[in-house]
Structure prediction request, 142 residues.
Amino acid sequence: MPEQTYTISDVSTKPPESWSFQKDGQDIKMLTYLIKVQENDTPLRLFRGPKSQPPKQGDTFTGEIVNEDRGPRLKVKQEPRGRGGQAPREDSKSGRASMAVKTAYEEICAHTPPGDDDKKLFRLVTDHAKFLFRLATELAES
Prediction:
């Protein structure tokens, strides 16, 4: 099914199934919840990390329903992640700073020939990031 927003209509009272997999040499733990969504009558599996809030009736997720060997599941679209696993917030001070540094780095590197002096590149990125941060802060506060 195509990607869309789904609203949970029911969560099984059965405890979630706990499982894990290896990624980059680390053991990643997951939980599988059984849910139903308003947009589809079929029971679905929903994967969540153990530190995530358990799904509840009324929660919405953007994603798609995919059919797998173990049955259909709601494959949730992953939001971009910043430091600490949190989605970056451009309206926060740290989000604006992160956006400014990333944008400055990408812009400067796109227009700087390879082999340029690293100190010069660092100074250009820093100056450009400070300007973008001030601009983003002024816009956020206006």
Observations:
- The CA atoms of residues 5 and 117 lie 48 Å apart.
- The longest strand covers residues 26-37.
- The chain has a mean pLDDT of 81.
- The first helix runs from residue 93 to 110.
